[in-house]
Design brief:
With about 375 residues, the chain is an alpha/beta fold. It contains 11 helices and 13 strands. The strands form 2 sheets. Strands 1, 2, 3, 4, 5, 6, 7, 8 and 9 form a 9-stranded mixed beta sheet that branches. Strands 10-11-12-13 form a 4-stranded mixed beta sheet, with helices on both faces.
Length: about 375
Amino acid sequence: MNKYKKILVISLIIMNCFSMSSCFSYRDINKVLFITALIIDVDNDGNPILYGEAFKGTRGATPVGTDERILYKGIGKTVFEAVRNMNSTSSYKFNYTQNKAIIFTQKAAEYGIDNFIDFLDRDQELLIRPYIAVYLGDPEKLITLKMIEEKYIGSFVVQLIDNIGSYSRAVKLTLNQFYNQRGMGDKTSVITIIDIPKDSLDEKIEVNGGAVIKKDKMINVLSREEGQGFNFLMNAISGGTLEITNPCDVNKFITLEILKNKTKTEISYYDNIVHLKKKIKVKVDFGEAQKCITLTKENIKKIQEKSENNIVKACNNVFQKYKDMSIDIFDITEEFYEKYPKIKIENIINKTELKVEVEVEIMNTGDVKNFQ
């Protein structure tokens, strides 16, 4: 009996291998265009305008692996219709499984992202892992950008946002995270803003702050300068730098490299006030000094204190700005109701007092202790 069972199991495995749909074959790939980035704009009547960047493997090309970047544009009353109209100009079928980025123009984000995202969630080929971003300029200028570093805008945006770990003033969000945030707490999210720098030596894209989205509409811009304070409050810093005045020359600066950061949140409610405490611990290396520096114990202590004060100031400034606007971009509403589900408060951020405690630890001052 065991012998027959083994034969049956082996037969089923073999049959399954033949019947399962596997990866694209060489023949399939030559009939498919893989979309690598989608840009969603809107016209003056509210109709979506879709721009697609596609990857096409070139059959029989030399060298092997040569590919072609093809651009498409579609307009419709809905995103689905725009997709079909875009596909009608191609002799190949579009495939969205390799899409890297969803980019909304500022006009589309201000009009309302909820007009476009149902298709992105409903279509089986479109994944929810891609990063989403808002682009402030002309979408046709973006889609036709010719970068030296990377041919495909979708791939470059992913690499750019993944590299945010080395830049503490930028924000990032995936489509999946946005889906979660748009229905929770204050229904507010901060989405990466990308832009084309005007002073660049060649064509490229940069991360340039965050788009504040409330109830699916873009209502404000979190500037790059505010990004660091926001990221410290949200425990979203994995690297970057701190710049402070040089204790040996107040007209010069010192740069500290952030190695590690941990922000702990404590929330409590008494005296009709929501008390929000953020305990921030930062480990840094000494990166650079302008002019000169003598790293005595006293100067190191001054550097630590100045760094701590700068972080506290950055956090308080961005918090107060959005409190004055009654916009909770800090997930306070979600944190509060998780702890106090039975207490109902309208617009929680207006009743929130922030206290920031910062501890900066300098791990290494480098091989060169002093600089003259």
